Amino acid sequence: MLYIVPTPIGNLQDITLRALETLKAADAVLCEDTRRTQILLSHFGISKPAFRYNENDPHSVARCLEALKSGKTCALVSDCGTPCISDPGWKLVKEAVAAGIKVSSLPGPSAVACALAGAGITGGAFTFLGFLPRKPGKAAKLIAAAYALDHPVVIYESPYRVVKMLELIAKTLGENTPVVLARELSKVYEEWLRGTAGSLAAELAKKSKVQGEFVLIIDRPAGPEREENNAPDPYF
């Protein structure tokens, strides 16, 4: 049995009761980084063997799959958030399903859902791109194609590249493209920045050091078409 267990994106109190029960009941915990996971397990008084799962190593995937085939119950976690969503896990899940192993996915913390809820810009469809390719040309093509779908676009970005990403968005979609930045979600220094791609790039570029992980949401300018699309359902 394989359980996909979301873990807190920052605040440890965000873990669910079901996640704790699953981690306690599992024979082993498969994790992205054993050091990070041990901090979480120790915090909640859980003593379980933790093994590193390396998505890019076929031998690692095979070892974890063999443990499942032998009848072990394993809990798959990533450093934070939901495994398989811009985090390792999908290859093991795919192999487990193909091998007839039961997979159960627990609901829980997710940075993309948390950021969208707090952004206040959509209650419907959105396009999630996760972490974009390092090459600006490829990243620009993905941004343009996603934006053309006429939904908010969500991107994950590191503090080291967020200014360059905002500059790329400004160059690709226009300086005045509305953007919401959610930084360090659920943590002590959580921060929300709202503006345009150009203005936010300039604002962050002035800082001596940018810290924290970012969820970047690209919106569309308000207008008659936007208001009509978000109008309440006339039947309610």
Overview of this structure, please?
The strands form two sheets. Strands 3-2-4-1-5 form a five-stranded parallel sheet, with helices on both faces. A five-stranded mixed sheet has the order 6-7-10-8-9, sandwiched between helices. Strand 6, helix 6 and strand 7 form a beta-alpha-beta unit. By secondary structure, it is α/β, with parallel strands linked by helices. It contains nine helices and ten strands. It starts with a strand and ends in a 7-residue tail after the last helix. The protein has two domains: 104 residues, 3-Layer(aba) Sandwich (Cobalt-precorrin-4 Transmethylase, domain 1), CATH 3.40.1010; 116 residues, Methyltransferase, Cobalt-precorrin-4 Transmethylase, Domain 2, CATH 3.30.950.10.
Please give the largest β-sheet.
Answer: 5 strands, parallel
List the total number of helices: 9
Which H/E pattern describes the elements? Answer: EHEHEHEHEHEHEHEEHEH
Percent helix among the residues?
A: 25-40%
Poorly predicted parts = 224-231
How many DSSP-defined strands?
10
Strand order, sheet with most strands: 3-2-4-1-5
- What is the average of the pLDDT values? 93
Report the sheet-strand fraction.
15-25%
CATH class membership of the largest domain: Alpha Beta
* Radius of gyration (Å): 20 Å
Topology:
Blueprint: E1 2-4, H1 17-25, E2 28-31, H2 34-43, E3 50-52, H3 58-69, E4 74-76, H4 90-98, E5 103-105, H5 111-119, E6 127-131, H6 136-147, E7 153-157, H7 162-173, E8 178-183, E9 191-196, H8 197-205, E10 214-218, H9 224-229
Parallel strand pairs: 1-4, 1-5, 2-3, 2-4, 6-7
Antiparallel strand pairs: 7-10, 8-9, 8-10
Helix pairs in contact: 3-4, 6-7, 7-8
